[in-house]
Amino acid sequence: MNIDFTPEDEAFRDEVRGFIAANLPRECADSPALGVMTDKSVVKRWHKTLYEKGWAAPAWPEEYGGTGWNATQRFIFNEEIARANAPRLMPFGLTMVGPVIYTFGNAEQKSRHLQGILSGDVWWCQGYSEPGAGSDLASLKTTAARDGDHYVVNGQKIWTSYAHEADWIFCLVRTEQSARRQEGISFLLIDMRTPGVEVRPIISIAGLHHLNEVFFTDVKVPVQNLIGEENKGWTYAKYLLVHERTSIGGVPESKKKAAHIRAIARAERNADGGALMDDPAFQRKLAEIEVRLTSLEYMNLRILADAAAGKAVGPQSSLLKIVGSEVQQALGELAVEAVGYYIEPVGQGALPGGANARGIGPAHAWNVWADYGYGRAASIYGGSNEIQHDVIAKAILNL
Amino acid sequence: MEFALSEEQRMLQDSVRRFLEQNSPLDKVRLAAGNTHTVQRSLWAGASELGIPGMLIPEDFGGMGLGFLDAAIVYEMFGRYVAPLPFLGTAVMAPLALMLAGSEAQQEKWLPKIAAGEIIAGVAVTESIGVREGAGVKAGKGTLTGKALFVVDWAEADLYIVADSDHGFHLVLPDAKGLSRRALNTIDKTRSVGELVFDQVAAEPLPRSSADAVARVIDAGRVMLAADTLGAGQMMIEKAVAYAGERKQFGRVIGSFQAVKHLCAEMAAALEPSRSLVWYAAHALDEVPDDARLMACHAKSHLSEVGRFVARTATEVHGGMGFTDLLGLHYWFKRIGFDRQLLGGPELVRLEAARLQGWAA
Known about the structure:
heterodimer, A: alpha+beta, Butyryl-Coa Dehydrogenase, subunit A, domain 1, Butyryl-CoA Dehydrogenase, subunit A, domain 2, four-stranded mixed β-sheet, 12 helices, about 45% helix, about 15% strand, B: alpha+beta, Butyryl-CoA Dehydrogenase, subunit A, domain 3, 3 domains, four-stranded antiparallel β-sheet
C-alpha cells in the first residue's frame, strides 16, 4: 500500500493547477457556481482552451489526440478541474461517441468526426432511450430501413440531453426484427440538420431545459454513417457503458459540494443566532455524509490503482454509481436544509449560465434548489440505481 | 500509486483465514460463547504460533514488527469467523500503550510475554471517551481509585493497562490489593469485558503517558473494530447469499426474487466500498499521522452504520431462521452490534470528527 503521490505526480499537479489558474477565464469559473447549467458559449470557450493545450481528451489514445497520461495523472487532472470550479466539458463526444468511433469506426469516420469532437467545434448528443425503452433499452423501436445507399430512420428518442444544442446525434436503431432483441440493433451517426429531425424541449423538475425529445420522420442517413457492422450496435453500446466508468462516482464534484455546504454553514445562522456550523446536530449530519464521501473516494482510488495496473473495472462501477449518486443527493438535501427559507425564491439557478442574474438572498443560496432538483436525476441516468442493484446481484453475487 | 494489499499481506490474511476456518468453526464458537470469561487457551496458542499476539510488537521484543494495516486485515478475519480471542486489548491496544508510553524496563518486562502469547492484557480506556455512572479513575501516589467500565479482554488478564482521568496510563496486576473485578455479561459472547473497581490500588505509571498516547491507543482500537465489522459483515453477506440460493418458496429459490436480490445487492453496495476506507485508516495509523485520527473516526463511524445495515439485512434474508439460534447467525449480528458501541458509537465519533476538522467555532 503506497498511496502517496510521487514527486512526479505532485509536479504534474502543480503544472495542471498553474495552467488552470492562468487560463480559466473568470466568467468560466463563476458560471457553474451561479447556475446549475453552464452556458454553451462558456463551455465551448473552456473546451477550446484545453484543446489548444492538448488536454481536451486525456483518456484518448495519443494517436487520436490523447495526452498519454496514466490513470493517476487523469485522476489528478479531474481533481484540479473540479477544485478550480472549471466547467465540465460535454461528455457526449469526448467520453461517449469518440471512443466508439476510434475503436469501431472506419478510417473515413475517424478522420471526419474525431477532430471536431476533440476541438469542441462539433457537439454531440446521445439517442438511446425511447418512451418504451428505458431500463429495458433493447426493446427500442426506432427503425432504420435500408434504401439503396441510405437508411430511412423513423421513430422517437427521449431524455436526449442537449439535443437542442447538438450538431450530431449517435443513435441506436433497429435494423432487423430478430428473435434476440439485442441482435437487430445498429449504431448510427445522424446529422441533426437532416430534414425530418425535430427536437422538442422537456422542462425538468428544476425548471431547466437540458432534456429533449427527438423525433425522426423519414430521415435519410447515408450508409457511410453506420458504425461497424449492421446489427452489431448493441456490442458497441455495451463497450461504451463499461468504458471509462471510473469517474462515475463523481467524487471531485461531491467534494466541491461538501466544501460549498461548509461555506454555507459558516455564514448561515442557527435559530439561536449562532453559526449553523456550531450546531452539533448539523455537524453530525455533515460528518456522516463526509464519511460516506471519504469511503467512496478511497474505493475510487483503489479502482483507479487497479485500472492503472491493468485490471478491468467491471461491475465495480455499479458500486461507484450507487454510492456516488446517493452521496450527491444527500449533499443536495443537506444544502437545502442549510439555507433554510432561502430555498424558496426559485428560479435563479435555472437561468442558463446565470452569471449576470442576481438572486434573492445570499449568493450561496441561489443555486441550491436547482442543484437539489437536478440531483434527482443522478439515481436515474446512466442506468438507474435499481438496474445497478440487478447488475451487482448478477455479476458480483451470482444471484 | 498503489492501493492494494501486498503479496505478503494477502498471504498473512490467507493463513489466518485457514487457521480460523479449521480451528474456530461455529461449534467451537458456541462452546466458547458458553464460557465467555474463559480464555480459549488452545486457540490462542495456535494464534501465537502464527505470531498474532506480537504482530505489532518490534522484533527486538520478540514480535513481528508489522503495521496496523497488517493487524487490520488479521482482525478482519477474526470478525469473519467471530473468533473468541483476546486480540483487541492484548495484541493491539496494550502493546501500543506500552510502546508509546512505557519505560524501557516496562517494555522489556511485558512486551516479550505478550508477543509469546503467554499473557492476556486487559485495557481500560472507556472513561477517556465518555464518562457514565460516575465512573473514572483518579491517580494518587502510586495508587488508583475509582471505577473503570467495559474493560476490554477482561477475563483471565495477567495485566491491566488503565487510563486515568488525567491521560495517564498505569499497569495494574489482577491480584493487587483493593482491586475488585466484576465480569459483565454482554450481547457479544465471543469477547470478554468487565469492570474494575479500584480502592487505593497499587499501580505503576507508564512514564511517557500523554493525552496523545491515550488518543492513539483509542484510534488504533477504533480502526480494529471497523476491520472486525468489515469481516463479520462480509461473512453475513456470504451467508445470506448462500441461504437465498438454497431456500425455496413458491417453487423457486428465494434468491431468484428481485426483492431478495436487491437486499443482497444493497448489502454489497454498502460494505464493499468501505473496505478501502478501513485499509486507508489502518495505513494512516502507520504512515500518515496527520490523517490518522480523523480517518479512525471515519472508519469507526462508517463501518458501524454499514455493519448495522448489513447485520439487519442479512438477518432479514434468512427469514425466521435468522432470528433463531439454529444457524448461529446471531453471533455475527451481536459482534457487529458490540463493535458499534465499543470505544464510541458512531454518533459520538462523528461529532469528534466534526471537532477535529475545526467546524465548531
